[in-house]
User: Fold this.
Amino acid sequence: MALSASVDYDQYREEKIFKGKPVEPNLATHKDARKYRTVLKRQSREGPNFAGHYTIITIGCGTSCAGIAVVDAQTGHVYFPKNLHNVFWAGWWHEPYGPQFKLNSRLLIVYGQANSEDEPYGVSYFQWIDNDFQLLHFEPRDRGRPPQ
Assistant:
């Protein structure tokens, strides 16, 4: 599935890529970090996967659902973004699905539903800016049909 003609990863390119050993998540930097310490530590060990020096952490919250946290691989700071806290893709019969992102871009794309199962299905484009996700664009889409 192609990106919207109006939004693509290269528009939000991050040139500085951290190549060092990732710092362990600092659980004191967010009130919810200790509750998710195991998944934060495990996934952040893999190193940055988003916006040059951040690691997107997906926290399972049921079938076809993930909570979103972000760990800065350079500082260990943990963020639980206010503007994108959950992603749902149950009933989304297209590929890709869920959150999609790249190491060299500040753009995160959600295929399915962003934040709530009550939200419409579609493709949501978020930019990481000022330590949170900002919605850039939403394209409503039919959720598709299950394979026959």
